[in-house]
Amino acid sequence: MPRIKEISVSDLSRMLSKEDHFELLDIRTPAEIERGVLPNAKALPMHLVPLKLNYFSESNRQIVIYCRTGSRSAQVCRFLNQQGINNVISLRGGVVKWSLGGHALSAEPALVIS
Questions:
Q1: Which among 9, 27, 43, 67 is annotated as catalytic?
Q2: What is the pLDDT of residues 21-78, one digit of tens each?
């Protein structure tokens, strides 16, 4: 099975400071999202990902997907890769590692994908 693409918190922080052309996607539950999201992240709960395949396949940008610890985002990336969608990257360690690295969280997502 091919490995999924992953990114470290430090690499993502550098990408954010350069404002590279990519999207951040939070796949946690609405209750988890209320505790804060990465800056400029969009939100799409994990269970809705299979219903939104067009969102991923029609994007010409890299999409960094994250959850609390990196486990669910890795699962989602693996699922999307199996659907032929390869513009996705999982944040290793998720929000937990992001916060432990001293990085800020925003109060709410920039957009909730519905």
A1: 67
A2: 899 999 999 999 999 999 999 999 999 999 999 999 999 999 999 999 999 999 999 9
Q: State whether residue 9 is helix, strand or coil.
A: helix
pTM of the model: 0.94
- SS in 3 state form for 27-79? CCCHHHHCCCECCCCEECCHHHHHHHHHHHHCCCCEEEEECCCCHHHHHHHHH
Q: CATH code for 6-112? A: 3.40.250.10
Residue 77 designated active-site? no
